[in-house]
Amino acid sequence: MPEPDVLYHYTSQAGLLGIVASDSIWATDIYALNDWTEFQHVFKTASVQVLVHAFKSGLPDDIDANAKQMVIERVLAERNFPVLLDIIKAERPPYGERKGVFVCSFTASGDLLSQWRGYSYSSQGFSLGFDSTLLKKQSQSVHTLDTPIELVECVYDEATTLERIRAMGHTAAEGFRDLRQRDEVVPPSFCTQLNPTENYRKDAYYLSKSFTFASVPFFRAAAQFKHPGFQEEREWRIVYSAFWKKLSPHSVKFRNGQFGPTAYVEIPLGLHTPATCSLRRIVVGPRTYGGQEMDAIINSVEMLLLKYGIPVRSPATPSGVEMVTSQIPYRSA
After folding, report:
1. Could you tell me which residues are beta bridge partners of residue 240?
2. pLDDT value at position 289?
3. Is 327 in a helix, a strand, or coil?
4. From its phi and psi, is residue 260 left (phi > 0), alpha (psi between -120 and 50) or beta?
5. How far is it, in rounded angstroms, from Cα 271 to Cα 321?
6. What are 325's strand-pairing partners?
7. Counting Cβ atoms within 10 Å, is residue 12 exposed (0-12), middle (13-18) or buried (19+)?
8. For residue 35, what pLDDT is reported?
9. What pairs with residue 283 in β-bridges?
10. How far apart are CA 106 and CA 89, in angstroms?
11. C-alpha 212: how far from chain center
């Protein structure tokens, strides 16, 4: 679906205070989330089978026979799919350097009962609506080649998931053709047999390297693919990925979590500067009270915003943050 103009992040009162005061939002280690098993949803042999088949089907026919036998018929053989999964995930050695994935969740719906139940933590909940274009632009300020960051829509449909994986395999095959066309130099350290021919060395290296053009995107996209049972959430995510060894010690912070010390990275929001402020709307979540008590909550939130130079919508400032209350008749304990 097209990217919504506004994306909502559900949080507690403590979360609201922290986001506004720090001018940032947290992307949390995906393994520390309540639904971290969703990250494993795509890591199955059927997915690897689609990826490998698409890669193999897009390769040219004139690949060196020995290189083809070594890489395609041995390394990428179906019996090795479980090992390939471990290599792609590379959560820890011996299969590779540990990778990190940090996510921050949003939804296209600003007043959703399941979200109030899941993210208010039995306190007063808030749904923060951000301009998606500005949100994406601000998140890109911490994007690097080593720590790519993107705003993506979660995929719940199995057929769409497999089609995305298939496209990754085709792209990787095109990468092989590109490496060969550019006649990329094979590193002296690359050697898989004694006294190899030049054609073997090149094709074996190009095959091995080009498959990473599929396996790396596969790992990153795993944070985007979710079980159909979560479709109601209409979730979008900021996904920040990196090899742990590439992460600056200053960029990763820790907080208390139900699964132990929980790693997170801060994504700048630019709320304190009018030109970059992406906050457009705040929905005050459902509670047992109303009337004057709800008015008092709204007043407090407005004062919080004004303290940090974030304008509140009024006849004089129509572009300010709009304050509204949930329309769901739900009693949050």
Report:
1. 102, 149
2. 64
3. coil
4. left
5. 11
6. 284
7. middle
8. 62
9. 127, 324
10. 25
11. 19
Would you list the domain boundaries of the chain? 6-268
Structure tokens at 25: 């939002």
Looking at the chain, the number of H-run helices and the number of E-run strands are 9, 10
Pairing type for strands 322-325 and 279-284 reads parallel
Amino acid at 58: G
**Which residue do the tokens 């979360």 mark?**
15
Q: Hey, what are 192's tokens?
A: 């898989």
Please, where are the H alpha helices in 43-119?
Answer: 45-57, 65-67, 81-89, 113-119
Amino acid (one-letter) located at 16: L
Give all strands (DSSP E) within the chain, no chain letters: 6-12, 24-29, 99-107, 125-131, 149-153, 235-243, 253-255, 262-268, 279-284, 322-325
Task: Show the tokens assigned to 20.
Answer: 């506004």
Per-residue pLDDT tens digits for 186-235: 998 887 677 889 999 999 999 999 999 998 889 888 889 988 888 888 99
Q: Which two tokens stand for residue 128?
A: 């923060």
DSSP state of 245: G
Q: Note the pLDDT tens digit of each residue in 223-255.
A: 899 888 888 889 999 999 887 777 877 889 998
Phi, psi of 322 (to 5 degrees): -85, 135
Locate 316 and state its tokens: 């004089």
